[in-house]
Amino acid sequence: MSTKPSPEPTTAAAMTGELDPALAARLPELQQQYAELQARGLKLDLTRGKPSAQQLDLAEPLLALPGEGVHTDDTGTDVRNYGGLDGLPQLRRVFAELLGVPVEQLLAQGNASLTLMYDTIVQALLFGVPGGERPWSREEQITFVCPVPGYDRHFAVCEELGIRMVTVPMTPDGPDAEAVAALVADDPSIKGMWVVPTYSNPDGAVVSEAVARRLVSMPTAAPDFRIIWDNAYAVHHLTEHETKSANAIDLAAEAGNPDRVLMYASTSKVSFAGAGVAFLASSPGNIAWFRKHLAIRSIGPDKVNQLRHALFFTDAEAVREHMRRHREILAPKFRAVVEILSDRLGDAAVATWTEPEGGYFVALDVVPGTASRVVELAKAAGIALTPAGATWPYGKDPLDSSIRLAPSMPPLDEVRAAMDGVATCVLLAAAEAATR
């Protein structure tokens, strides 16, 4: 059956009972359905949470901005020249309101928040961070806490930089805060953790204020512990209920740990994924630290691009309204995913899935031991899915049950076709397992 995130979700990954023997009896029928699926010659892709062409078209007017003869922002700065390391105040004011941070504690930079996150961790490795005793690279071991299921690119950064990863489970209210607190209390090698606070990737969970308070106030053995607060989906709502992110930066300051939180966001799924603007917000101390090293690496960001964004998104409400138009395109695709899974799998007791209120993904849990087989079957039928295990560090899901679905990019009819095929693959993999 389907499941929205709940305090005690029942998921396929948690199933401990035997599979229904009737599944084994259905194997020949499901094999025939799968053969028919293969015969259709599909070529469908649900691998990554990319905006569709229809969504990208919403920002098409950006390409005509700032316009011939328009070279200055509202302070008179010529955006064609060097300087302006912090980014245009005109744009920073808009996103400071959306993110709930002071303008002076927000930097606007290049097109990718992932780049800013990577740069932050590299700077910490090379130079250390405020409150630390030495550069992280001089420590015997660096460890990050990784909520699972989580974002594969976060895990890739750690793997690339030799950072050990330990996992804690996600809950509907965010990472299991007590599990995190227990880990960080006695282990000084734990220097950070990843959090996607609003509509997390892939399960759509939202960090509650209570969990946020616990994370920013818990004692840590490492005095320079940091939370990488990747607020990628802060304005990416799928319903009329526009969830507001917990204000972790303010909460951390109130708790006496002002430097603990580093917040990131971008317009990658707001305007153009390849030509957006990324943001970093944090305490005054962290911003000064990052800016110091940034000034060596850069003489200023792409202010022409920032000006075109500022002229297009004149205020915070303009961004919100723009994202409502995104919602009109995305919401039917997510409804189709849930409807087809419910129709095809609802009575089979072989899978559960989330019904997110925002973000870009649906988390599908299948019978333990079959996620890799589902992905394999789908690929052979012309349906590309994210590799099983991608939502776990090192790509290794210990239960082999988690699959991330990304329905944003294909047209609605292709989403429907793909999900019908995925359902067939889930059933066939479960029936195969029932015969073993």
Keywords:
2 domains; disordered N terminus; Aspartate Aminotransferase, domain 1; globular; 3-stranded antiparallel sheet; 436 residues; 39% helix; 13 strands; Aspartate Aminotransferase, domain 2; alpha/beta
If you had to describe this structure to a student in words, what would you say it looks like?
With 436 residues, the chain is of the alpha/beta class. The protein has 14 helices and 13 strands. α9 links the parallel β7 and β8. The longest helix has 30 residues. The two termini are 23 Å apart.
Supply the CATH architecture of the largest domain. Answer: 3-Layer(aba) Sandwich
Helix and strand sequence = HHEHHEHEHEEHEHEHEEHHHEEHEEH
Could you report the average pLDDT, rounded to the nearest whole number? 95
CATH fourth-tier homologous superfamily of the largest domain: Type I PLP-dependent aspartate aminotransferase-like (Major domain)
SSE blueprint and pairings:
Elements: H1 21-25, H2 27-39, E1 44-46, H3 53-57, H4 89-99, E2 106-108, H5 113-127, E3 143-148, H6 152-160, E4 164-171, E5 174-175, H7 177-186, E6 190-195, H8 209-217, E7 226-230, H9 248-254, E8 261-266, E9 278-281, H10 284-297, H11 303-312, H12 316-345, E10 351-353, E11 362-366, H13 371-380, E12 383-385, E13 402-405, H14 412-434
Parallel strand pairs: 1-12, 3-4, 3-6, 6-7, 7-8
Antiparallel strand pairs: 2-9, 4-5, 8-9, 10-11, 11-13
